[in-house]
Design goal:
Layout (H helix, E strand, L loop, with lengths): L1 H33 L5 E10 L4 E13 L3 E3 L1 H11 L2 H21 L6 E5 L2 H6 L2 H12 L6 E6 H5 L5 H10 L3 E7 L7 H5 L4 E4 L11 H16 L3 E4 L5 H10 L3 E2 L8 E2 L3 H8 L6
Parallel strand pairs: 2-4, 4-5, 5-6, 6-7, 7-8, 8-9
Antiparallel strand pairs: 1-2, 1-9, 1-10, 2-3
The structure holds ligand C2E and magnesium ion (3 copies).
Protein name: Diguanylate cyclase
Length: about 280
């Protein structure tokens, strides 16, 4: 009886633990080789100026094509790369690669103003981001304002102490700092007072109910007002319908991204996209 109860209690736990651990170890070991094996690439999603209907820049999004696992979504693997610390090397590569892409587009006559990269909590903690940004900009001969860094609120809540100094250093270089997925995870707005932030991106979770759901609509409106009154640039992400675009335009939200305008594009497709858009990116 004790044995059976013990098995009932422990077996499922052991099983899950083993699977999680196996998952984790497998992911971490595959990720460790992925960068050097060239399994990563970046895709780029346009950011649109709503009022002018022009393309102002591109957000770089990481893609992992693993020979063992196939295409793995960043929302799955980033967390493992953070746990193992591999995110520092991967993140530095992302910053470099995004800058090289922007350099190539500019050399091809596309006037894209900036490229945005996503940076995770663990990456900022390590303090290596500043070095990665500096060397990428230098290598590519780009000014700081060619680069935007997106990070989630977690970075700000779990303030690593020297966050303010690091942000100020990035700011002095001209790099802009944006809060991604704003409103999704945390309710404290205190960090907006303490930290030099340039922009907010409304979480796509609030976009889903626009324009019919009054709660989502009101939250969007409130975030647009917060951004405006603090002098921050606002981007709405996950815009999929024309009704959502209209709603944002009427609120005076300046920028948007989403499948309505374009899915993330392979680097080689960006020039064609801009041409089809009727815009060489200078608009
Ligand atoms: P994010 O930075 O908030 O990026 C937006 C995500 O929404 C992307 O998913 C994008 O493909 C997707 N998306 C774009 N337009 C639409 C739309 O209209 N509707 C819907 N439903 N989704 C849309 P993706 O590429 O799978 O990236 C997921 C997350 O992974 C990103 O969220 C970001 O937090 C993280 N991530 C991506 N690349 C990197 C990276 O290089 N470094 C780090 N640290 N994180 C990254
Ligand atoms: Mg982002
Ligand atoms: Mg986002
Ligand atoms: Mg997101």
């Amino acid at each position: 009886e004790a044995k059976r109860r013990g098995r009932n209690i422990w077996q499922p736990f052991d099983h899950e633990l083993a699977r999680d651990l196996g998952d984790r170890l497998l992911m971490e070991s595959l990720l460790r080789r992925a960068l050097d094996s060239g399994e990563f690439r970046l895709v780029y999603q346009p950011k649109i100026d709503l009022a002018r209907s022009s393309v102002i820049g591109m957000e770089a999004l990481l893609r992992w094509n693993s020979p063992q696992l196939g295409e793995v979504s960043p929302s799955h693997f980033i967390q493992h790369a953070e746990n193992s610390g591999e995110i520092v090397r991967i993140g530095a590569w992302v910053i470099g690669e995004a800058c090289r892409a922007l350099r190539a587009w500019r050399d091809a006559g596309l006037g894209l103003r900036h490229v945005a990269v996503n940076v995770s909590f663990r990456q900022l903690l390590g303090g290596s981001v500043l070095d990665a940004v500096q060397s990428a900009l230098r290598e590519c001969g780009l000014p700081g304002n060619a680069l935007e860094i997106e990070m989630t609120e977690r970075v700000l809540i779990e303030d690593a102490g020297d966050t303010v100094e690091m942000f100020s250093a990035l700011r002095r270089m001209g790099v802009s700092l944006t809060i991604d997925d704003f409103g999704e995870g945390y309710s404290s707005l205190n960090y907006l007072r303490r930290l030099p932030i340039d922009g907010l991106k409304i979480s796509h979770t609030f976009m889903q109910g626009i324009p019919v759901n009054p709660v989502d609509s009101n939250i969007c409106q409130a975030i647009v007002q917060i951004a405006r009154s603090l002098g921050m640039k606002l981007t709405a992400e996950g815009v999929e319908t024309d009704a959502q675009r209209e709603f944002l335009l009427q609120l005076g939200a300046p920028y948007a991204q989403g499948y309505l305008f374009s899915p993330p594009l392979e680097a080689a497709r960006v020039a064609d996209f801009l041409e089809a858009w009727g815009d060489n990116g200078n608009g």
